[in-house]
Design a protein that fits this description.
The protein is of the alpha/beta class and 336 residues long. It has two domains: 132 residues, no CATH class; 183 residues, Rossmann fold (3-Layer(aba) Sandwich). Helix content is 33%, strand content 17%. β2 and β3 form a beta hairpin. The protein is globular and about 60 Å long.
């Protein structure tokens, strides 16, 4: 059942609750909490959120078509966008942001993960809430030396992503099947790999017992276990996996980056170079086994890629990401 903001509770009550949640978790550069006003509009698609200056306050406008659950779930996106916006100069009057992972239809100008031909990319909510993954940065300072790490290539992730569910190996090259399912099929018989799902998305939970029986689901791995691994994999879910790529580079892993099937990117991707910061893998993964063979037969090159990726990730801290966001918003908020 869909709950409009105007059902069960009045729009004023819903708006006040959302505004309180946002304000409680955002401070501007002076350390003060901005005044946040919330309203609902019929002018935008369900997942779009508009933010504009309203005197000394910021007004956040949600779509009337967004149900209450989604309106509240947008808060991480809004908190991040509002923070970047609050640091921009007064000439920046407004912005619109896609409140989905980036895969939903949107008329917003900005998105944390999307096709850059359709949206202007800004840092994602996980980067904001983790203050540039500050805790992971601290852990990476004492990570084991490369030559003491495990060679096994391990991946765990939810069975997220657009496409149909299939566990049939005949569908290994079928682009209509969820890319992460095809990843498991591609590497399940490659020696020295342990690539499995941690589970399936909630709307596909009915398939979890089948996936487990067929060996698609494995035991969870602690995220910090990649501190002691030489290699990692990054692959899209619904869009880019947000924190995974940057954190694995922070940990000093040589990352196999599977190309996005739908062209999704994050704001820093244009600064990365294949075989310098990561090992590229095609979106159909037909070259994955070959890339693994190359990495294992060229250990010095793989170590250099890991080191370059780590240097890049360490330089992209919260302060650098904040400067990026403010510059991007300032440059593009009023694009035609």
């Amino acid at each position: 059942m869909v709950f409009s903001p105007f059902h069960s509770a009045g729009k004023a009550a819903i708006g006040a609750f959302i505004g309180f949640r946002i304000r409680r978790s955002v401070r501007n550069a002076a350390g003060n909490r901005p005044l946040v006003l919330v309203d609902f509009t019929t002018d935008t698609p369900p997942f779009d959120v508009a933010i504009r200056r309203d005197g000394q306050a910021f007004r956040v406008s949600y779509s009337h078509d967004a149900d209450r659950q989604h309106a509240v779930s947008f808060n991480p996106y809004v908190r991040a966008a509002l923070y970047w916006f609050s640091l921009a100069g007064p000439e920046v009057e407004r912005l619109t942001v896609n409140g989905s992972d980036g895969h939903a239809f949107s008329a917003a100008r900005f998105a944390p993960s999307a096709d850059p031909a359709r949206h202007v990319l800004i840092p994602d909510p996980h980067f904001f809430s983790g203050r540039g993954y500050r805790h992971d940065r601290q852990l990476s300072e004492t990570s084991p030396a490369w030559n003491t790490r495990s060679d096994e290539i391990v991946w765990r992730g939810a069975g997220n992503g657009d496409g149909r569910v299939s566990f049939d190996p005949r569908d290994i090259a079928d682009p209509t099947v969820v890319q992460r399912l095809r990843l498991v099929m591609t590497l399940r018989n490659v020696p020295g790999t342990d690539v499995k799902l941690s589970g399936l998305a909630s709307d596909r939970a009915i398939w979890t017992p089948t996936a487990r029986r067929l060996g698609f689901v494995g035991d969870r791995c602690a995220p910090t276990s990649w501190l002691s691994r030489k290699f990692a994999i990054d692959i899209d879910g619904f869009t880019n996996a947000w924190s995974n790529f940057l954190v694995r580079m922070l940990y000093g892993c040589c990352v196999f980056k599977v190309a996005s099937q739908f062209g999704y990117q994050q704001w820093y991707y244009d600064r990365l170079r294949p075989f310098e910061h990561y090992i590229p893998v095609s979106s159909d993964m037909s070259d994955f086994a070959e890339r693994i063979d190359w990495a294992r037969s060229h250990p010095a090159e793989a170590e250099a890629i890991a080191a370059a990726g780590q240097r890049f990730a360490r330089a992209l801290d919260f302060e650098a990401g904040t400067r990026d966001a403010v510059d991007i918003i300032t440059a593009h908020w009023n694009d035609p």
